Amino acid sequence: MAWMAGWLTLMVVIAVAGRQAMRELSVFQLMEMRALIGMLLLWPLIHAAGGPRAMRTKRLKLHVARNLVHYAAQYGWFAALLLIPLAQVVAIEFTMPIWAAMLAVALLGERVDRFKSLAIVLGLAGVAVIVRPNASGLNAGQLIALAAAVGFAVSVVLVKSLTRTDAAIAVSFWMLVVQCVVGLVPALLTWHWPSAATWGWVVLVAFCGTYSHYCFARAMEHAEATVVVPMDFLRVPLSAAAGWAVYDERVDQWTVLGVVMILAANLLNLRRAPGR
């Protein structure tokens, strides 16, 4: 719970900082700068863990695969921030737990008891109440956010698999390395030198992006994906509050109802089974 609290806080901040930075920069440039600066910010933890040699892994292919998927999903997430309200981006992202839970069961052998299942269903119902797609269906921003959610689900399951053999710091290290390489050319092609104010937002994105994933990987070390992922539902009401406070985005009675359902889902998910 403590590591997930860190993840939640940093992910809400990165949504606001990312939207501010993208007023000047392309998504590709922001992601590349985030990865490069993030490597510098992560260095104290890398050094404390034994330096670059301690980052060696026997599962490099899986790290690369995970981060290619995550890079694409992350691009979609940042792009959606420019098209729809913060609360909607995060709410649609939470179609992800149903995919993550299914993949965790199929690929990692995790079990989903009735309480976890009900928590996922109740949480997703709360998200649906918040989003409320109209008769014409989802718009472009919502569709992009939905595609990103599927990508994040794959990434979550791969992170859980990786933490069985690799430390959280190694997972974060290889994320930055792979994404630096993948995004270099697109970033250079769209490069625009940021203003002083935008540099501040970029550094904030890099800090939150780097340490949020470290927190998430540490949470995965201590609990199953089917426990960790539903706790992330709290990011919906937190993002709605940030959108209201920073951008004056409306929070109506349906959003409040959805938040209540999501909170109930998290409380249900934290219920321990008998004998545990």
Report on the structure:
The protein is mostly helical and 276 residues long. It is 77% helix and 0% strand. Helix 1 runs parallel beside helix 11 (235-247) and helix 2 packs antiparallel against helix 8. The mean pLDDT is 83.
Write the layout of secondary structure elements.
Layout: H1 2-21, H2 27-48, H3 60-81, H4 86-93, H5 96-108, H6 114-131, H7 140-162, H8 168-189, H9 196-222, H10 225-231, H11 235-247, H12 253-269
How would you spell out the order of helices and strands? HHHHHHHHHHHH
How much strand content do the residues show? under 5%
Number of domains: 1
How is the biggest beta sheet arranged?
none
Q: Using DSSP, what is the number of strands?
A: 0
Cα distance spanning the termini: 17 Å
Tell me roughly what share of residues is in helical segments: over 70%
Mean pLDDT: 83
Task: Compute the number of helices.
Answer: 12
Structural class: mainly alpha
Low-confidence stretches: none
Shape: globular
- Radius of gyration of CA atoms, rounded to a whole number: 18 Å
Distinctive features:
276 residues; mainly alpha; 12 helices
